Amino acid sequence: MKNNLFAAVAILSLVTASAQTTQPTKIKVFTPQASQISKDNSYKWTVKTDLLGILVGEFPVIAEYRIAPKFSVEASAGVTYAFFPNESLTLTEDDEDIFDTKAAMGTAFRGTIKYYPSTDYDAIEGWSFGIQLFHKTTNREYKTSTDSNPDWDGKQDSKVKTGVSLIISKQIFEDSNISFESFIGVGFAKTKRTRYFEEYNTNTETYDIVENVEDKSVPNVQLGFRIGFGN
């Protein structure tokens, strides 16, 4: 009996000593410092040009910048070189009587605000909807000869287009930071075409240079494919 009691006391003493010497397990929780917090790695800007625009004589430099998680602003400035006669776009019955023309320089300016609805990306990636304001001038110089009326000097067949469009586009970025964007735009534009022709003056028995200005409001459709670089 005494032996059993002694054994029980010994076992209890060992268990108590073991419990006192065992250190409690501690769980460390990592709290990142401010410098270690992950940063926003989505693209914030891109600079690009429009390959389809170049094919029709517009050479733009386009810059897009993210101003909010789902919004960006885009500005475009460029020169135009009218490969095609203005009358091919606004044909009238009198166009066959107009002097031949050749390509000349003009300008083009565009401003767009875009909304990117995708939940997978922040602006400026994925599908977007935008409103664009634009102002574009295409010029054609009149072809004259050495015996032409000197009043023809400096005269141009000029077409000015000002309007607004709804833009639907999709923009993606490759790993090399190259951006690709395709878009379609539908809207309205006011066009002002200024051209010149000769009219015989019976009083002076000479030909005078007469200016003709034509204003129209027309539907406007845009297509584009852009390539650029962003970060």
What's the topology here?
Elements: H1 2-21, E1 45-50, H2 51-55, E2 58-68, E3 71-81, E4 101-115, E5 126-142, E6 156-173, E7 178-201, E8 206-230
Antiparallel strand pairs: 1-2, 1-8, 2-3, 3-4, 4-5, 5-6, 6-7, 7-8
Task: Explain what you see.
It is a single chain. The chain contains two helices and eight strands; from the N terminus they run H-E-H-E-E-E-E-E-E-E. It has an eight-stranded antiparallel barrel with strand order 1-2-3-4-5-6-7-8. A hairpin with a 2-residue loop joins strand 2 and strand 3. The radius of gyration is 36 Å and the shape is elongated. It has one domain (43-230): Porin. It is 11% helix and 55% strand.
Radius of gyration: 36 Å
Provide the CATH top-level class: Mainly Beta
Enumerate the strands of the largest sheet in spatial order, edge to edge or round the barrel.
Answer: 1-2-3-4-5-6-7-8
Helix percentage range: 10-25%
**Major beta sheet, specifics?**
8 strands, antiparallel, barrel
Uncertain segments are 34-39
Query: Overall 3D geometry?
Result: elongated
Structural class: mainly beta
Tags for this model:
231 residues; mainly beta; Porin; eight-stranded antiparallel barrel; elongated
Please sum up the structure shown.
By secondary structure, this protein is mainly beta.
